[in-house]
Structures
1.
Amino acid sequence: MSEPAIAVLRSHLSGRWQSGDGRVATLFDPTTEAPLATCSTAGLDLGAALQFAREQGGPALRALSFAGRGALLQAMREAIHAEREALIEMAVRNGGNTRGDAKFDIDGALATLGYYADLGKSLGERHFLLEGPPENIVRGGRVQGHHVRLPRRGVAVHINAFNFPAWGLAEKAATALLAGLPVLSKPATSTALVTYRMVEVLVEKQVLPPGVLSLLCGGVGDLLDHLGPQDVVAFTGSADTGSRIRGHRRVLSAGVPVNVEADSLNSTVLAPGAADATYDALIRHVHTEMTQKAGQKCTATRRILVPRDRLDEVIADLSERLRGVVVGDPGRDDVNMGPLSTAEQRRSAEEGIATLLAGGARVVFGRPGRGEPRGVAEGKGYFVSPLLLVADEPLQASAVHDLEVFGPVSTLLPYDGSVAAAEAIVARGQGSLVCSIYGDDRPWLEQAVLALGPYHGRVSMVDEKMADKAFSPGMVLPGLNHGGPGRAGGGNELGGTRGLDFYTQRTAVQGNGPLLARFLGAAVE
Ligand code: NAP
């Protein structure tokens, strides 16, 4: 029997498909470990690719108003939506996603494109953003200063992580393209199949003008050496790679802005005296965060703070939910959690679990290891079973605050129920993407939101009045900020029009007030 054909993924650069000619990377099916595709970027002229995007893509986008750019995003959404079923299948095979996981990624991409398409429409025929009212420099308004946000004249280089090949492309591209900046997107090599097909569809259907969206499939090569002072880099991935990009010689010398979304030890906090509906939402959400995409979400809950007197109850209720998780071939309907996406991620998760256990945590549900995945050949696949841990002395267990195990693993941290104790524990994470707080004591909630907020880019508060409608905290929403201080990288993405800030230059323009108001399309004050 002949081996199934392996796809060769190319890059779309300088307006055409190109293949590298050197060391080839292989993409695998993490369930069977079978090779699926190869790609290479060796020998590609990445400097020319960036220049082509600057010269062709940038002017094409800047010629369009926000409404015109929004229409491009809407066309992208429609073209990708038509391919949804095929993309889901690819995510199952290349990412180890269940169909539900795959939809979370792909539908999240579609929703984000749709949100920014609508935002473009609402911003209308303007080409740039005005920030706030003018400043009067001389009394009477004759000499004024306006702040404008103008699209930068470079390229937005997007370097993405392996876990969201669809959403990662879309969420970054939506904001950059709406701002007026062409994009060069580089997916993580290991799961690039979905991103590749999305871009292939856009090219086949000629949705975008030349140079507006380029794709680099494979290693980053010397891309960063060719960056210029009008370019930007938005990166999602590990803190190590983020630091390497920030410290890159060319990035530093050209002053290239870098947005980093990196490791995050997100927390969930159960307040004392939470109502039943609120408590149930926490149990539901923690279960989702631990098992959706096998816990490979940057926003997944890693640390769960519960009042010490409710610890046993929470262990029992979470364990009951986790007993319903069937790990195995994610293509099967009777499986609800697949493998980790790569052999390297499995190795890293296994090492991480050992470190947590050596550092003051104990297992209260599950057993470290691959378990017995359903429908999978003996010993095959990058599986990690769900694991619930407890660190009885949270402030002494440093690993749980320092190490993000990127898999179906979370740790319960008992605390005395005070906001001060919750803050002391949460702060040990050194900055995270999201914190979720579940409670019904309003003064407590108010204090907690204000005390825990500074350590996070987003805080999700759930009380009994809206517990049945609340989204699980790991869901990133296009209208709300995504990013986090400190260890999380200090980045900001999305958040409606705020997401455009990174791709635009804030310029103060001062002069003849009424004349400037006319030039800039501002109301004369
Ligand atoms: P990674 O190894 O840092 O890779 C991320 C991206 O960076 C990939 O596209 C990778 O390309 C590229 N890359 C690798 N070396 C580079 C270099 N020297 N210069 C420029 N780019 C380089 O991370 P990962 O394995 O994809 O993801 C793992 C971690 O990312 C997770 O453990 C998690 O902590 C974090 N993460 C954070 C978020 C967030 O939003 N905060 C989201 C997802 C993941 P290749 O694939 O070609 O090597």
Note: The mean pLDDT is 96.
2.
Amino acid sequence: MALNLLMLGPPGAGKGTQAERFAKERRIPKISTGDILREAVATKTEVGQRAKAIMDRGELVSDEVMIGIVRERLERPDAVSGFVLDGFPRTVAQAAALDRIMAERDPLIVVDIVVPEDELVRRLGTRSICRLCGTGASVGSTVGAACGKCGGRLVQRTDDNQAVVLERLKVYHRQSEPLVEYYRVRPTFRSIDGAQPPDRVAADLAAAIAAAGNGAAGVQG
Ligand code: AP5
Ligand code: MG
């Protein structure tokens, strides 16, 4: 059975950190819509040029654009035997579209990473990413240091200033949090405590996925 994993959680919950780690371990692609958009911005594609201002305000890019990007990505051969989705879906319309895309495929395993709001604000206020390769630096890295992967300088993400972080959290509560209720009724839904050290979160994530996988097997009969 393909491992089709979807990570839910507010900005700063650790979706990207855990998705990267898990995808590497299981050798499946990590599909992060934030990373895809940041790359489109950096390479100045048409989508990137339109998305930049929206992202810098902390708002959401349109469902139509995002669904198109994800549909195309999930159809590529490397995603057939599984994937980790990070940052999509973010609206109920995106979730409904994903259900249509996945209709003939193995069930989605959905893990919601729960972290208190003050911790999210703290994390985003201190996060650094690489200016060159865009990689999120490891926990505790600081702006100005060198990227562990490529040596590029670590900088603050353009949407991590305080005003935009607060807007992103508002947008999350309004548009993305309803997804928890959307998925909670499924036997393949789990939620984990993201306010622990990364290794503990990773261990809980692996356990949640194993348990949710049993739920999925039940669904398939
Ligand atoms: P996106 O890039 O997805 O940003 P986000 O949802 O705001 O989430 P973040 O990447 O900020 O947080 P994360 O959960 O990945 O946390 P991370 O692991 O980095 O989206 C950016 C923008 O793109 C959106 O605002 C929107 O405009 C657009 N967009 C993207 N997808 C879209 C969609 N589907 N529809 C419409 N628009 C879309 O961790 C955060 C920090 O905490 C890091 O510094 C990390 O080192 C640290 N950390 C991680 N885990 C721990 C831990 N356990 N303990 C302590 N620190 C930790
Ligand atoms: Mg992220």
Note: The CA atoms of residues 6 and 154 lie 28 Å apart.
3.
Amino acid sequence: MATKQVYFFGDGKAEGNAKMKELLGGKGANLAEMSRLGITVPAGFTITTEVCTYFMKTGGKYPEGLKQEVETALKKVEKIMEARFGDARNPLLFSVRSGARASMPGMMETVLNIGLNSTTIPGLITKAGNKRFVYDAYRRLIMMYSDVVMEKAVGIEPKEGMGIRAQLEHEMQKMKDAKGVKFDLELDADDLKKLVQIFKKKIKQVLKKDFPDDPGEQLWGAISAVFRSWNGKRAKAYRKIENIPDDWGTAVNVQAMVFGNLGQNSATGVAFTRDPATGENKFYGEFLVNAQGEDVVAGIRTPQAINEVSKTDASKHLPSLEELMPELYKQLAKIRTKLEKHYRDMQDIEFTIQDGKLFMLQTRVGKRNGMAAVRMAVEMCKEGLISKEEAILRVKPEQLDELLHPMLDPKDEAKAEKLAGGLPAGPGGAMGQIVFTADDAEAQAKQGKKVILVRNETSPEDVHGMKAAQAILTAMGGMTSHAALVARGWGKCCIVGCGALNINAAKKVLSVNGKRLREGDWISLNGTKGVVYKDKIGLLPADPGKNVYYKELMTWADKLRKLGIRTNADTPDDAKAARNFGAEGIGLCRTEHMFFGPDRITAMRQMILADDEAGRKKALKKLLPLQRKDFIGIFKVMDGLPVTIRTLDPPLHEFLPNDEVSQREMAKQMGVSVEAIQAKVQSLHEANPMLGHRGCRLGITYPEITAMQVQAIIEAACHVAKQGVKVHPEIMIPLVGTKQELENQRNVAVETAEKVMQKAGVRVKYLVGTMIEIPRAALTADQVAEVAEFFSFGTNDLTQMTFGYSRDDAVKFLPDYLSKKILPAEPFQTLDQEGVGQLVDMGIQRGRATRKDLKVGICGEHGGDPKSIDFCHRVGMNYVSCSPFRVPIARLAAAHAATR
Ligand code: PEP
Ligand code: MG
């Protein structure tokens, strides 16, 4: 435990700084930094994350000396703020907020207005000159405190709608109904004074405890509750999704309260130093006059824009901050520039104006979607704020996914029935079936349904369902509401503030502009424009080619990266898509996929059913022209680039039907008896087909299959070469475990190729290489490389065989392995560098010991995974190969690897 547990900030000074996020959390570190920068923040202090871990470990004890340190810091704050905590005449109030190393928006607790009690209330009324304000602050304290400290923190889990907060809200509603008013603001000071008495009675009745009147008790209650909220349900769920370690802990920030709800001269708001949805270099934000911060985020009132460019359909008729308080807006804009220059990144800020004085409450690096991340990175580099390398590192490879995201087909969209409009919180298009709760979203998505989560507003409790949904639609909330923030962070399509929705979640129905929809009904969202449509609308693939920022960033990335990027593609169309995405060759063409087409499967089955070589050759002859045609198509698309074609890999039973109905159909079609088919299926049956007669083993038993495939490849190559296409075929033999296996297949390939080229009268340069996907091949890679002209690591099989986990069945237990932390990541998604990685590394080194310039790539799923790509870079591969849509992600990930 570090000796110092409390770090003070305020009045242009601070004991901490921005680099101390681990100890002070993001919020605490940045408050300290802002204070050092001379930006006005309400004075306060941060209790470290180490205190949190101590508190957790000891079941709720505080380390020695903490109380004293808090006392000392509190005194300093009192001095700066010229007020005293608990003082009858000049009281100081505190906010108590969480702040972890990584931002966890809304996942932990906050308590505001700590220090209001029977003694301080009269003093504050005199000081603020506003009785209503004081009682309103008090009722907020009671609501928050009873919920966070007296209920959640002690582990009470009330039934849905029976939480103390909901019960108090119900009391407040009752009072409004009795008065015949709609808004909280319509309750006057005396109403609120009565209300707090009702609240206190209710609390005593429900929680069997008095609401504490002692400011010290309130403060420590709040601090403990915030520490405890680190292990609250939703914080835990969020950490799991975001991969945030459980042992980090949160810091607690205790800060002097400033009020945005002191009247028309006060306000509170949130802003981004650039537009987080588009990345445009425009100051973007929202605020509310006479409100507290929670009002902006809760999305109950429609926030106003801070300036003209931030105005939306919902706020265009309302005056901006720039119009209402021009002097303060100028100050805020200056701070914006200062913060961006200092942090050299887009900031997400919170501010409060108390009676005409501007305070910054928070700054942090702002979340942004992929499109915005790319634009900001490129523009900030051009503005000289960051280097090209930094610009590249600013965009997470996965974020490019969003640029590659589908949009609603504009033609269909133009004809579609518009249901309502809302705020465009997360771009892209989506369609799905309506669900009303996060649990339903999760459950139905698990069944493979595409769902859209529709709620009044989302809360951090909904994150699991939000993650599972295709898109999120809320009736309330602004661009900075919970739903908007979370969706933006994930790059998910999202519309918020869709006021026309009337949702009855209990009955699972909604009405919107006279239409009734129920659970399971299809809707479509345009998250870029904020429009909701009835029914399904077709989705168009994204067109990153039109995005100038993306294109520029990718050229920087391409210059930096050392790894080549290829694609796994089996058709000319896929190859074309991949080439458009920047693929520099095909790393894996799985030829078996070509045998499943309706025009081929019969010939393939005839080949399998044949009893002898002559029969097989006859059937293969029918397949030959079809394969050749496929290869001609692919070679033409990949003109000038290498194309790795793998010979037949799966066990033959995969080409025969399993069920009797299909077997009968096949029998009829082929003019054979169903018994003959069943006998064949029986004879092909294997206990462990993935370890059985597949890969090169098939080609060794039936060399005519390999010969036919090589003939098709080389004939196609000769054919296109004659037309002037630059063709570079690479014949790849799968599932090799010994040098002799490869030798056998290489001989077949070379013999066939020579014959074809002689006959065609042209020569094409081709390579014969192997997949390394059996541990033995990696171990004996020096021998294998005597025969192989290239290696391509098939890490799907290599993972299967190294772990001994069946690729097809591991889903049954891998989730348990992940949740029980037996494995850190899904090994079929992210390469196990510790184990499988050793084989890869060794395979490369041994292979290159024999053949110095052996070309090495990867074509397992890991070839598209950024972490695995980093590994491939480090072990000196020449290229990675992945599915077409992951090509841009791989390009950027390879640049990241080269930059680090
Ligand atoms: C592999 O095993 O990694 C591979 C690419 O081959 P397949 O997935 O087709 O077995
Ligand atoms: Mg394989």
Note: The chain has 35 helices and 34 strands.
